[in-house]
Write the structure tokens for this entry.
Amino acid sequence: MKLSARLEKIVGLVDKGVRLADIGTDHAYIPIELLKSGKIDFAILSDINKGPLENARKEIMRQGLADKTDLRLGSGLEVLENGEVDQVIIAGMGGILIADLIEKKLGLCKSLDKMILQPMQAQEDLRSYLNKRGFSIIDEYLVGEDFRIYEIMEVRYDGGTQDIDDIYYEIPTKLIEKKDPLLPDLLDKKIRENKSILEKLERSSQGQETNKAIVDRKNIVEAKLMKLEEIKRNI
């Protein structure tokens, strides 16, 4: 079974010998790879939908790993009890949904060694939530795959919060400090997105030059663009 670059990176971030939960496991590719390699001995696999969980069950049976797994049908982290696992993977969901899942089992998440999170969108919202709730992002990674850049975070609770400029929720300082080779591509993507938003706002503001909501929104986007372009110049 050949893993994608994204899944391979996530597998590499799981620590040896931990009890793992893969939330939204789909086909169970990550825990299967970890179990077959001997990096871990046990994993809980969960999904909110019966179909994907049944797919995971079939693949687990085919690989002969039934005695090393526990498959659970349910929503997010609510399938877990405190102390059952050391680390959790939540990959392939939106950032706002991931934040909501963490919030619903906040005590459990605070007790984990770490969480490995891979939001598909709204990454800045997830980073903001994590900071406000006292979670520290240990490290961040970018993975390129199929013309898309995936953002992966290692997260641990330490109770501290930081005063962070909103731009660094979009472009994390850890990626800047390590000079991630994909950072220029991520910046280009963010700049294109914000230019597109600005163009739409300018079209919608024609004849409404005094519309305060549109003017305020344009000012916010223009300020964000300036910061993104400054970061790009300095990397």
